[in-house]
Design goal:
The protein has about 300 residues and is an alpha+beta fold. The chain has helices at about 35-60, 75-80, 105-115, 135-155, 205-220, 220-235, 255-260, and strands at about 5, 65-75, 85-95, 100-105, 165-170, 185-195, 195-205, 245-250, 280-285, 285-295, 300-305. The chain is about 30% helix and about 30% strand. The strands form two sheets. The chain has a six-stranded antiparallel sheet with strand order 2-6-7-4-3-5. Strands 1-8-9-10-11 form a five-stranded antiparallel sheet, with no helix packed on it. A hairpin with a 2-residue loop joins strand 9 (about 280-285) and strand 10 (about 285-295). Helix 1 (about 35-60) packs across helix 4.
């Protein structure tokens, strides 16, 4: 048997302030990009990487290739769980935007770059170097980070004038109170290739810092305009007004038929609190989403965290 809450839910106010047909796209309200916005962001970041290839190639005095591997929106907590254990992270600001941004890469790549900038070959040894970077190493590596981030700041023009400011370099993000685990980020994967070695590093941008800029920068793209017009047309369709019953179901438990037959008014069913932290969100007779349940004295909220289909 499953515990089910079928009371009519209240959607967060930020998502209901405007009628459905006129509501603007919100990066902070979803965990995935629409196809048109995905394509625009990928094109944007490929142009940035072409610029950065030249700047970093001059700095390192060698041929360097930077290829975009992925652009995605996910939570900060998911990023921390997925990042490599042997990673080195640069914390920086993109002034005047709020929030802390990250450049995250394998520490072995950091050592390669430092070796090359100090006059070495930059060739990766047979066993990857995973030692902590010394203060001198960090100072040298900061030149690489500043050069890359300066080009990233340029890529945001003409929508904003930004200036990168490196704050510090860290190894372990698990103990860094940088963002809340459920805060959304834009995570950009970049494959770095030189001396026949390929390694992926990541740029991490808090959505709260750039949502308005992203909306402005993508608003003029024809593909986004067409996609939004199609969505608006569907929203204005009479089918869009058909009510759909929504229920939230916690993970249940089993009882014997004899126990079920013996149930009566006043009996108490005990639910395991750990199993009530997550729930399935049903639309009609189908389970569509997973959700995280948060309870406080005034209300209970369910945040959609994934798909079940």
């Amino acid at each position: 048997m499953s515990a089910t809450d079928t009371a009519e839910p209240q959607i967060a106010a930020s998502a209901t302030q405007a009628p459905e047909a006129s509501r603007p796209y919100q990066f902070s309200s979803v965990s995935a990009l629409t196809p048109a916005r995905q394509q625009c962001l990928e094109k944007w970041h490929r142009n940035f990487l072409r610029l950065a290839c030249g700047s970093l190639g001059d700095l390192l005095r060698l041929g360097l290739d930077l290829e975009l591997t992925t652009v995605q929106i996910q939570t900060y907590g998911e990023m921390v769980q997925e990042r490599g254990v042997e990673n080195h992270c640069v914390l920086f600001r993109m002034n005047p935007q709020p929030g802390i941004w990250l450049l995250d890469l394998p520490v072995s790549l950091s050592h390669q770059l430092v070796d090359r900038m100090m006059g070495g070959s930059g060739v990766l040894p047979e066993e990857a170097d995973t030692r902590e970077l010394t203060e001198l190493d960090q100072s040298i590596f900061e030149q690489f980070a500043e050069t890359l981030l300066a080009d990233y700041a340029k890529s945001w023009k003409p929508h904003a004038e930004m200036h990168a400011e490196v704050l510090r370099q860290v190894r372990n993000l698990n103990y860094q109170l940088i963002h809340q685990p459920d805060a959304l980020i834009l995570r950009v994967g970049i494959e770095v290739s030189f001396h026949e070695n390929k390694t992926v590093m990541w740029l991490v941008v808090p959505i709260v810092s750039v949502e308005e800029l992203l909306l402005r920068s993508l608003a003029s793209d024809d593909r986004v305009k067409q996609e939004d017009a199609s969505v608006k047309q569907k929203q204005e369709s009479p089918m869009g007004s058909v009510p759909v019953p929504i229920s939230v179901r916690w993970q249940g438990f089993q009882m014997t038929l004899r126990e079920v037959e013996a149930m009566t008014v006043g009996d108490v069913l005990v639910l395991d609190n750990k199993k009530c932290d997550t729930a399935a969100i049903w639309l009609g007779d189908k389970a569509k989403f997973t959700g995280r349940v948060v309870r406080d004295p005034q209300k209970t909220t369910v945040t959609i965290t994934g798909h079940l289909e």
